[in-house]
Amino acid sequence: MSAANLDLMRRLFDTLAKKGVEATLPVVSEQFEMRTPSEFAAEPDTYRGHDGIRRWWNSFYEAMDEVRLEPGEMRSLGDQVAIRSRLMARGRTTGLEFTQEVVLLATVEEEKLTRLELYGSFEEAGAATA
Q1: Which pLDDT band, with edges at 50, 70 and 90, does 129 fall under?
Q2: What class, spelled out in words, does domain 2-129 have in CATH?
């Protein structure tokens, strides 16, 4: 299952980059949940389901011209995948560029993304799975 989960996450990031968030929704569960903790977000929140994913992305586009989420190294952790990621954005009015690195811990169930958690390192993500 872990190789399939890695493949699913690679495809999801590729689809996101080429076609946008709407095109990723077929591989995202309606029960999806993501929490953005205060160490990674100016306004921590919880995002649920497809509408939650849309709301998360729209929150960036309210202030940003361009937003990209690029995956780096991926590690299989059973039914979860830890993904070193870089979020890059450019301010709509300021033109200032913003970069944030984070490790996403993705939970996959029945070939769908069900949860994303944000961590500062692979070690923190791994400890969360123990």
Answers
A1: confident
A2: alpha beta
